[in-house]
Amino acid sequence: MKLGNYEVKLEKRLELTAWEAATISILAIFVALALVSFIFLQAGVNPLTGYKEIFTYAFANPFGLPLTINRSIFLLLCTCAFIIPIRAGLWNIGMAGQLYVGALAAFAVAFAFGAKESHSLDLSPGIVIPLMMVAAALGGAAIGAIAGFLKGRFNTNEIVVTMMLNFITFWLVPFMIKEGGLFMGASGEGEGFKLSSSIYAPLIMGVPFTIFIALGLAVLLYFLFAKTKIGYQIKAYGLSPAAAKYAGISSFKIPLLVFIMGGAIAGLAGYHYFAAVPGVYKITKNYGDFGDLAFYGIICGLISQGNPLAAIPFALLFGGLTNGGRFVQGKLKLGFGIDYALLGVLMIILVAFQFFYRYKIVWMKTEKEK
Amino acid sequence: MPMEGIKRGDTALEARGITKRYPGVVANDHIDFEIKAGEVHAILGENGAGKTTLMNILFGLVQPDEGEIYVYSEKVNFRSPLDAIDLGIGMVHQNRKLIPAHSVIENIILGHPRAGNILNLKRTGEEITELCDKYGYKIDLKAKVWQLSEGEKQVVEILKALYRGAKILILDEPTSALAPPETKKLLASIKAMTRDELAIIPFITHKLPIVLTVSERVTVLRRGKITARLATAGATEESLAKEMVGREVIFRLERVEVEKGKPILQVENLSALNDKRFLALKGVSFSVHEGEIFGIAGVSGNGQQVLAEVLAGLRKAEGGKVLLDGINITHSSSLERWQMGVGYIPSERVEVGSIGDFSLVENVAMNYYFDDDFAKHGIMDHKKLRKLTQEFISEYDVAAPSPNTTAKSLSGGNLQKLILARVISRKPRLLIANLPTQGLDVGATEFVQNKLIQAKKEKAGILLISEDLDEILSLSDWVAPIYEGELMGIFPGGEAKRENIGAMMAGLKQKVEVI
Lengths: 370, 515
Hints:
The complex is a heterodimer.
Chain A: E1 2-3, E2 6-12, H1 18-42, H2 47-60, H3 64-87, H4 95-112, H5 125-154, H6 158-177, E3 203-204, E4 207-208, H7 210-227, H8 229-239, H9 241-246, H10 253-276, H11 287-294, H12 296-303, H13 308-331, H14 338-353, H15 355-358, E5 359-365
Antiparallel strand pairs in A: 1-2, 2-5, 3-4
Helix pairs in contact in A: 1-2, 1-14, 2-3, 2-13, 3-7, 3-8, 3-10, 3-12, 3-13, 4-5, 4-6, 4-10, 4-11, 5-6, 5-10, 7-8, 7-13, 12-13, 13-14
Chain B: E1 11-22, E2 25-36, E3 41-45, H1 51-58, E4 66-71, E5 74-76, H2 81-86, E6 89-92, H3 104-109, H4 121-135, H5 150-163, E7 168-172, H6 180-195, E8 199-204, H7 208-214, E9 217-222, E10 225-231, H8 237-245, E11 263-273, E12 279-289, E13 292-297, H9 304-312, E14 319-324, E15 327-328, H10 334-340, E16 342-345, H11 360-365, E17 375-376, E18 379-380, H12 382-395, H13 412-424, E19 430-434, H14 442-457, E20 461-466, H15 469-475, E21 478-483, E22 486-487, E23 491-492, H16 498-505
């Protein structure tokens, strides 16, 4: 393409530094925000005011910030649950199902200790909380293992299996918490029982301790893929199953392992939201919304190119925007769904801008034709 | 299109000062090249000499940094292959660009401007048949491409280019995948095409004698530069190889006599299925001793691939036994076999032997990650692996800028050297080398063969599987032709007669009972 005296050319990138990747992502975010401005303008709102409201509420408001952080922890866990299998070339679409089962398993522990009977029961948090978390991880891992086993043993498509398990587990939740269900709450209005206050997850400056688990897992996974033998085997399998097999890497164990690990982390996301976020402490009526939110983990994982450390800022951004978007919709009396529109556009642009991970635009001064 | 009125001897294509730089290398350094209508002008070079870049530039896939291209004396500027095709340049790819599920005729008209929305297959069929008759091709236009042999697929690609009106034909490694009779046919058709004033440019890395028989002029590339431009009449195989490699090349290897040791591999009545679940290996028995090369000669698809995979633990045996140093390993996993001293050099070096997106260090790790010295307590020792890779690069003369380069950026020969270095460095008791020199240039072939001989001297037992009869005969202590999953006999290397083995590979001679 020619522009005046310059020729604009696309050139393949030979390598991409972390710095370049970050610049491209930030550019994409600005482009997305610019595009969504039109929605604000159309509603008669100054986009700058709109964004100011969104970001202040999400990141600088005493009510908004904790909500953002809680969502971001949840998203980061779901992203990690997606990243492990994707490094093995496998798609975990089942974080929703894994987190439902994780949450049910955690509440099963509380139930076993009699938490359903009395809200004020004095239980030992040092025993029950770790048990709840282990149960959540095991529950998620068990569901994940189904997909991993079928993939490894029979080469069954893992996308279909995880997706179908989402449906099964989605209905397993109301079976447990609605009328007559074992985990039914006292009011019987389609909610699970409330945890005894003695086993509320500890808060650190108002933030559930699960934030350290999420951040710790992200760091640990980064280390796993960068340094360990297991991580190497997963990556080799992900890039070329045939070459991995040649090198003696089991094409049964790797799919099973990554889905167990991914499922366990998704299970922890279930624990986090339903047992650790202040004001929740029960499996809520709208549990399905969190299953939907889990899907943002896929986008987050793809945008961060399977790098768990890069996923941290994206999880924070998405957590903040879903939260601030919903708030601004009420405050500025905007149409329904502005938060979804904002996220949708943002994701499309981020994915579209990945083009620049592979190509760069080169400007060249053209010589006059002889 | 400048198609009409072409006279014999007109300059069909001319490239002047073509230069293309990639980070770290000059792939093409001021290349001048010219071909006349009705001429065959071959371009020779080792892997990595810049042939592919030049070919892609002439076909419009890559734009040069400097230089000019003239087609029939008109300056052209290719933005994409479409421009090149419109000017009458056709390309016959080595990795065929055909749709396997479609018929021959559908593949030929795919992308043809006249194809439009409604296909007139009848008229097209007649026109293609006419082309076939003219140049002596025989092909069933209704056959699906997946049913065709490599040679027939090549014919489809040539016809596709001709039907599109090509007057200048680029052939990428035209003879590399062909059986001898197919090669003969190809050469005849090239002769026929030049009679119609087509200009033909074959790009070649190996099988040099074929170049000599068909082309009038040869241009030799080495490291991006032209090292020789000569008339074929005065050239010999040795002189061309010398120009390509930059030093004398020995074509005949001497068999080294090594004192025979204990049996390493014993295979008893082994049978196995292929991917389509047919019995592809039908009860073979043989043994390989220390310091011995056991050569299996066969045309590909006769069970030798299945045999290699079963021995490497990548495929299940249906029946029979495999013993390594007397231990039954028939049901051992491939990892266990690596640890017991089986080393496998696969024929598919890109798909199986390496991981393109991995760095060279990570590729070396493929045979070392299970070694406690390189992965203590589950943590990979990247420093040690890097050092090892560095050693391989210098010792095996792998052309790579650094150990961190990705494997996919290496040429075939360099990749094979790295795989070889990695496998041999484990000092395997049994080395299975499956088509170790296939597709390699003269220099790399010589190198690989010497390394096999060296491993033999170090008392490894070597199972060499090859389609190249010369290679098998000159290297092996024992030669076993394989045909339809059976060994046709086992002959001492020195006594094996070429004609005899060749006939057995082709299934023209009866099986001989092993003494």
